[in-house]
Design goal:
132 residues; five-stranded mixed β-sheet; single chain
Length: 132
């Protein structure tokens, strides 16, 4: 049977088309998060940025460490809370920030080690007991 003439042109144009570049792509959206109790809006977040990169490089919160970047060591662990509509309550879990895309954090409450307590603002009772 072979290719019909109308499909031959389509196949050629698909092969000749360039792949879209994602190197400078941003999301045309405002990301709303609560970081250590402070409401933050992030306009046009880079879809390639991880939560760890945002915390350290943009927010300046260096208590969340950059180590293995594979989720194995736990140095980048943060607490992420999201509202579960089926349970009708906020659900918290520990997340490796090096694996969590920033763009997936919209509407979430994120607590880093700085949000738990610092020497300047006062330590959390758990931190005081560990430091003991």
């Amino acid at each position: 049977m072979g290719n019909a003439p109308c499909f031959q042109g389509a196949a050629r144009s698909i092969k000749d088309a360039e792949a879209p570049s994602v190197m400078n792509t941003t999301i045309d959206h405002v990301l709303n998060i609560t970081l250590n109790g402070e409401a933050i809006q992030i306009p046009r977040p880079d879809p390639r940025m991880t939560l760890l990169e945002y915390l350290r490089d943009v927010a300046g919160l260096t208590g969340t460490k950059r180590s293995c970047l594979q989720g194995g060591c736990g140095a980048c662990l943060v607490v992420v809370e999201r509202y579960d509509w089926s349970l009708r309550k906020w659900v918290a879990k520990g997340v490796n920030a090096c694996l969590k895309p920033l763009a997936t954090c919209d509407g979430m409450i994120i607590t880093t080690v700085e949000g738990v307590g610092t020497e300047r603002k006062g330590c959390h009772p758990i931190q005081e007991r560990i430091a003991g």
